[in-house]
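Thread title: Can someone regenerate the structure for this chain?

I was given the following input by a collaborator and told the matching structure tokens would be attached. They weren't. Posting the sequence so someone can regenerate them.
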Amino acid sequence: MAADGGIRLRKRLPTPRGDYRRIVDTLAALVAQIEAELRIQARVGIGIPGAWSPASGRIKNANSTELIGQDLPADLAQCCQRPVRISNDANCFALSEARDGVGAQADNVFGVILGTGVGAGLVINGNLVGGCNLIAGEWGHNPLPWPSAAELPGPRCYCGLHGCIETFLSGPGLAADDAGSGPGRPAGIRDPQHIARSAAAGETRARASLDRYANRLARGLASIINVLDPQVIVLGGGLSKLDYLYREVPAQWSRYVFSDRVDTRLRPPAHGDASGVRGAAWLWEA
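Best answer:
Regenerated them for you:
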């Protein structure tokens, strides 16, 4: 990325599955290839679906489980022969949108990832907030607020607990809810895009699934507003492409927010799915 935030070159490769060493080698080879094409020596920033642990010096809480327990910063630095900066992918997303995206004029930006998992990053006055445990923004592993009796105890989460926000608001969470076995609801897993298309076509089952999802997202974000009171909440990940959410969620969150009115803005990302990698580059300016 250029100093002004412009993209100089973009390349996308599939993440090797089940092989940590291949992940490291693939990243190092990608850095070398980009430098050769651009004829530069670059600074390296990496966004990962997890966090670096100050206690162990290794990766924790990663959806890409191959990374857990690995010394990824040191291994990449050795392969690339230079220092690297690593942060959670949701942190990178939030940093990108706060620096020169939809939150560029805001003092307090909460960047949410709604995809295979649910995460977030917090940027205050242009500075990424990591916290003393480097888990700031991990709202996906809090319980769903104001649950109904039907939502208790909630689905089991990979973290070992039940009823985490991630189990309801991730893409797999929406798909599992839609495929539930309630009366008149046929079995069958459908991806979120299929559900959205079916809802737009008037299908009752799909519309009910999206309505439940929007209400749960409104409750989850209301709890964030009550604690952090951000000016902007920006949504990323595959589910951020559901236009329905930007109308319905703010219409519902007021009943849960402890205020006479809610001025927080809910927005899609300015930089789309490039925001995460842009934020990884911004780590060198953070």
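The longest strand covers residues 108-114.
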